[in-house]
Design brief:
The chain has about 110 residues and is an alpha+beta fold. The protein has one domain (about 5-100): Roll (Sulfate adenylyltransferase). It contains three helices and four strands. It has a four-stranded antiparallel β-sheet with strand order 1-4-3-2, with no helix packed on it. A hairpin with a 3-residue loop joins strand 2 and strand 3. The two termini are about 25 Å apart.
Amino acid sequence: MRLLFRKEFFDGIRAGRKTQTVRLWARQWVRAGAICEIPNLGFARILQVTPIDLEDLTETDARADGFDSLRGLLAKITEIYGPERPADRQFYRVAFAFLGEERPVEPALFE
């Protein structure tokens, strides 16, 4: 499973300043606990996925997403996804922990 990011966000992810992303999906693509590859960067564990309306985002969400302000986060969301949300799409708040470049070894379920 992959979670794509623009290169402009790589430094923030590596430094732990970006621990969240807002995505517009037709359905939820990732689940809490999953490990996702971030191409050209490494791997992340998904901590939480929550459906959200943009008007419910907060300054705390903006900081977790690597922005200085909610206004900056909303401007980037509009730049990426456009000004209108299609009726068949939902925004999701995805919290994650960057794990580094090496794929983590998962413990065996059965031994």
